[in-house]
Amino acid sequence: MEITLTHGLLLVVTGFLAGIINTLAGGGSNLTLPALMVMGLPAEVANATNRVGVTVQSITAMIGFHKHGKLDTDDKGPILLPTILGGFIGAALAAYAPSTLIKPLLLGTMLLMALIILVRPAIIAPELGTPVNRVKDTPKSWFWLTLAGIYGGFVQAGVGFVLLAALAGSLRYDLVRANALKVFCTLFFTLASLLVFIKEDLILWVPGLILAAGTMVGAHLAVKLAIKVSPKVLKWFLFLMTLCGSVAAMLSD
């Protein structure tokens, strides 16, 4: 397809913003998916192409968090296994399920997360110094991590919120470390879903790579912000993003 200058700028700018939003909270795909669809991509192709940018931003953020000593990898295997498995399942569902399921699923997730942050903020934002649970000692974390993988493989938009619910809620990581592990998990289950979409020939690589350039810069900046801002600021940024995600889901076609 022909990429105009306007399209290129749209992808870079939305990618940059999505890189920041996805690294600090979630829901950045609410910007990038419409941007891809404005260019004329069908919903399923936009959904698949978007994963190129998500992959690049996840690599960038993961490296940044690791550099600052915020990426805890002691329990990485048990955390990754259910999310990768879920990613394969979700991507397979996305390749064949009707796209009409995306909007109600996204909206329901956003509203639930907003409600949790308002009513029970300690669930999603544990205090610094809260003891961390290991996956093997927390059976419910397997359910949440698998669910996050399925959701992310299926729709991607808003998966950061589901991952934070699992990592901060059930495993009790503080928001900075939960965000670091979130992008770590996102990278691997996105790679899993990317393989499915490549097999189904659903990815347009040129717009995907242009989008990725923007997300990479945004993710790099977001890591620096995550390290410096207070947990309270991160919590309210997360809440704001859930509201924006809810509005985006309600207004989407």
Key traits:
mainly alpha; 11 helices; globular; 253 residues; single chain
Give a description of the structure.
It is a single chain. The chain has 253 residues and is mostly helical. It has one domain (5-251). Helices cover 77% and strands 0% of the residues. The protein is built from eleven helices and no strands. It has helices at 5-24, 29-38, 43-67, 76-96, 102-119, 121-124, 139-154, 159-170, 175-199, 205-228, 231-251. α4 packs parallel to α7 (139-154), α4 (76-96) packs across α9 and α5 (102-119) packs antiparallel against α11. The longest helix has 25 residues, at 43-67. The chain is globular, with a radius of gyration of 17 Å.
Summarize the structure.
By secondary structure, this protein is mainly α. The protein has helices at 5-24, 29-38, 43-67, 76-96, 102-119, 121-124, 139-154, 159-170, 175-199, 205-228, 231-251. The two termini are 23 Å apart.
